């Protein structure tokens, strides 16, 4: 980076080749690698790692000690909780079959993709390559090994869908007498379940 905005703490390690708008805040001991691109108003917590070429949309919040490995792609308004790990190696090994230590040329990174507004709870692990849909919610401590649909609430090891959430992050409730219709108890927004596997917001 050219110069160092006040919003980047002195102990943070931010590559000069990263793109970090002045509206972002980067806290103590965070590392942002080469070619990483952050959108406006992102908050990067203490000890966070943002890998080479990772892309974050606007208004993302990455909490303390989260590890976002390349080539992750995060949409707008994504929340990454404390100590979350987004992995990038589907078949991890330190060495090749001949015993030699692996270099960057010996494996192909695979990424995690997270849709707009989605949240990943504290200490969850997302095992690449998977996609987490828009406004989905991953519970704290979950291990995600498969794609998560839009608005889905998943929990457990491995993570399984346990419900639906709305844009406010609150579990949706069935509308009486309409089993395929759900309502957010906080906002009043309504949603429709299609075939028990897809949720659509009624005003989308």
Q: Find the structural class using helix and strand composition.
A: mainly beta
Order of helices and strands: EEEEEEEEEEEEEEEEEEEEEEE
Arithmetic mean pLDDT? 94
Number of strands: 23
Strand order of the largest sheet: 2-4-7-10-13-16-18-19
Strand content: 25-35%
Low-confidence parts: none
Number of helices: 0
Biggest beta sheet attributes = 8 strands, mixed
Note the gap between the termini.
Answer: 39 Å
The share of residues in helices is: under 10%
Radius of gyration based on Cα positions: 18 Å
Report the principal-axis shape.
Answer: globular
At a glance:
With 204 residues, the protein is mainly beta. It has strands at residues 13-14, 25-26, 31-32, 43-44, 49-50, 55-56, 61-62, 67-68, 73-74, 79-80, 85-86, 113-114, 119-120, 125-126, 131-132, 137-138, 143-144, 152-155, 160-164, 173-175, 178-183, 190-194, 198-201.
Please specify the SSE layout and strand pairing.
Elements: E1 13-14, E2 25-26, E3 31-32, E4 43-44, E5 49-50, E6 55-56, E7 61-62, E8 67-68, E9 73-74, E10 79-80, E11 85-86, E12 113-114, E13 119-120, E14 125-126, E15 131-132, E16 137-138, E17 143-144, E18 152-155, E19 160-164, E20 173-175, E21 178-183, E22 190-194, E23 198-201
Parallel strand pairs: 1-3, 2-4, 3-5, 4-7, 5-8, 6-9, 7-10, 8-11, 9-12, 10-13, 11-14, 12-15, 13-16, 14-17, 16-18
Antiparallel strand pairs: 18-19, 20-21, 21-22, 22-23
